[in-house]
Automatic annotation (TrEMBL):
CDD domains: Radical_SAM (cd01335). NCBIfam families: rSAM_link_UDG. It comes from the Bacteria. InterPro entries: Aldolase_TIM, DNA_rSAM_put, Endo/Exo/Phosphatase_dom_1, rSAM, rSAM_sf, RuvA_2-like. The keyword S-adenosyl-L-methionine applies. Coiled coil: none annotated. This is Putative DNA modification/repair radical SAM protein. One of its GO terms (molecular function) is iron-sulfur cluster binding. Gene3D superfamilies: Aldolase class I, Photosystem II 12 kDa extrinsic protein. Keywords: Iron, Iron-sulfur, Metal-binding, S-adenosyl-L-methionine. It comes from Eisenbergiella massiliensis.
Length: 448
């Protein structure tokens, strides 16, 4: 089959260099949520804790073999480095090449799974069929039983998406931009309906398949690790309230596992793209991830964190601290009596520490020293809690006073844009060992 209009004589290593670099801006490559084990007849497995991740300095996941099948694309999205109007080196793998790379790198412990996305080669159906063929070969012919995350192609035949779902652990469809208006402006070839249709298909397929597996023990499993999506942040003028409302809607209506927020990186010059004199909006991305955590694990709703009058997050305080300061009428909380959901709303108390508090206080009242051992961050929590009716220190339940003290507690924030690099780490990056090209080929057991 003619897979690409690119140079067919290009070596697989050259393709790997181009197509790993082309995939570096896609951040939605988490692998948690699946505990399927290998059956002993093939290679690899995936457990509930997911793949052991490594992360680059800007938070991008590097532990999977993260590649595009092709960076050829018929679309001309203004924010994308792989858009058809860009003069960039183009390459495409064949299904067998992706399988060989995955197996050889897995055998040598370079990777623990595969994250496979793609540009649109010729048409959505054509591209989706190639992705399906790749996963089918990897599972059935190469007996790979490790983790696979694949991107579904919006607009592709639904049966192809469905069949691919029985071969993947996780699937995702990029929402691209938070609103349909932004999509129309920056990605005129893409349509919200084409994105949401396969998202709904995957959601319904997961629900139906759970019932089938419950009845028929050996029924094939459909997308066992669920689905996720990604939004580019800062390319269009939506505020944080709009973005979090979209995320809340996706969690509620499509049962997504994760929504990823990718700070806009200006790789193209275009009049419709914003100027970023300060670099990518990494602090904003950081705040959105913190708020997303509150939606998924802490019982918050988007409209509790922000509203139309206050549409953006506080750059100085994390969203949970900011919410607490605006709702001081709920504090202080007595840790020996408050229920679990109330404890989750206290700054400095996380999911695990709240669970430990509920469990430990069955044996008697807790003191501040107990809370410290449990894992509560007292330098944040002390303004919002009491133990047996007493606060840790004499303090004021006053917004300005607490704000000044919280600002004195340094928060770990993303690196400044000036010190960042957007080069995705390769499989062979190691400060102790920098093999030459021929050594890499030999290590992979391939002849080029």
């Amino acid at each position: 089959m003619d897979y690409s209009i690119a140079d067919r004589q290009m070596s697989i290593m050259d393709k790997l260099g181009i197509l790993t670099d082309a995939a570096k801006y896609d951040v939605a490559c988490t692998s948690s949520g699946n505990e399927r084990k290998g059956d002993g007849t093939g290679m690899g497995n995936t457990i509930k804790a997911g793949i052991c991740h490594s992360f680059s300095g800007d938070g991008r996941c590097i532990s999977l073999l993260k590649i595009l099948f092709t960076n050829e694309c018929i679309y001309d999205c203004k924010y994308c480095v792989n858009r058809c109007s860009n003069d960039v080196p183009r390459a495409s793998f064949t299904p067998d090449e992706v399988c060989r790379l995955t197996i050889e790198f897995y055998r040598r412990n370079y990777i623990e799974g595969l994250f496979l996305s793609s540009g649109i080669l010729y048409s959505p159906d054509y591209t989706m069929e190639l992705l399906y063929q790749t996963l089918y070969k990897l599972r059935r012919e190469y007996n790979f039983q490790g983790y696979i995350h694949v991107k579904a192609i919006p607009g592709a035949n639904q049966e192809l998406v469905r069949m691919t779902g029985f071969l993947a652990d996780r699937m995702s469809i990029n929402l691209e931009l938070p609103t349909a208006e932004g999509l129309k402006k920056l990605a005129p070839n893409k349509h919200r309906k084409n994105i949401l249709t396969p998202m709904r298909l995957i959601q319904n397929g997961i629900a139906v398949n759970k019932n089938e597996v419950a009845v028929y023990r050996h029924a094939p499993v459909f997308v066992p690790a669920g689905q996720s999506t990604q939004m580019i942040i800062g390319a269009t003028p939506e505020n944080d309230y709009q973005i979090m409302s979209v995320a809340q809607n996706l969690y509620d209506k499509f049962s997504l596992k994760r929504v990823f927020y990718s700070a806009f990186v200006q790789v193209n010059e275009d009049k419709d793209l914003p100027a970023l004199p300060g670099g990518p909006p990494l602090l904003r991305e950081h705040r959105l991830y913190q708020a997303d955590w509150l939606l998924r694990f802490y019982g918050f709703r988007a409209d509790e964190l922000l509203d139309e009058k206050r549409p953006n997050f506080n750059v100085l305080l994390d969203p949970k601290e900011d919410w607490a300061l605006r709702h001081l009428e709920f504090f202080p909380v007595e840790v020996n009596r408050a229920d679990y959901q109330v404890l989750l709303r206290v700054p400095g108390i996380g999911v695990k520490s709240a669970q430990r508090i509920v469990k430990a206080r069955r044996n008697g009242n807790l003191c501040f020293e107990d809370l410290k051992r449990i894992g509560v961050v007292l330098k944040r929590a002390l303004y919002f809690i009491t133990c047996s009716g007493h606060m840790m220190y004499k303090t004021k339940i006053e917004e300005d006073y607490i704000t000044r003290n919280l600002l004195a507690v340094k928060e770990k924030l993303p690196a400044e844009a000036g010190g960042m690099t957007y080069r995705q780490l390769s499989l062979f990056d190691d400060v102790r060992f920098a093999p030459q090209r021929q050594e890499i080929r030999q290590a992979a057991g391939m002849a080029y």
